[in-house]
Amino acid sequence: MRHEPGFSRRLLTGAILTILMAPLPALAGPVTAIIENIPDDSGTIRVAICTEDEFLKPSCRYHAETKAVAPKVSVSFEDVPEGVYAVQAFQDRNGNAKLDRSFIGIPREPIGFSRDPKVSYGPPGFDDCVVKLTPAGGALALKLITH
Fold it and tell me: Which ranges of the chain would DSSP assign to H, the alpha helix?
């Protein structure tokens, strides 16, 4: 079987262009979340860095916990890809790995979100908490809301 002249060169050029035009993976960097206004040393501080689809759900891809130490703690995350996220945190005072709420849904444990939005009559929206992470990572601070 014979190919027309230049077929191999066009095939190679097409393959190279396909590789060069493929989307590059998002670069990732370390992120430190600094949780302030911790009222006491009981339990643990649970922190999550969430995409919009994960926000306010217990299944955020990037999550960590550390012992609660008043008045603040820091939690490190490795290799969080650049992008748009929101950080959510709470003090799990009784160690049951969930945010305890009253029968009408009001949190019974201290909570907090990136950009420290005002929380009244329900949780904040993702847009109220959004932070943009770069490939270099960085530090984010938030304050727990205590009742």
Answer: 7-21, 126-129
Which residue, 88, 97, 39, 42, is CA-closest to 61? 88
Do residues 42 and 93 touch, judged by C-beta distance below 8 A?
Answer: yes
- 51 Ramachandran zone, left/alpha/beta (phi>0; psi -120 to 50): beta
- Give the global pTM: 0.81
Structure tokens that stand for 89 in this block? 């945190």
pLDDT digits (tens, 9 = 90+) for 2-12: 556 665 566 55
Q: How far apart are CA 98 and CA 81, in angstroms?
A: 26
Distances (CA, A) of 74 to 35, 67, 70, 71, 111: 6, 10, 11, 11, 15
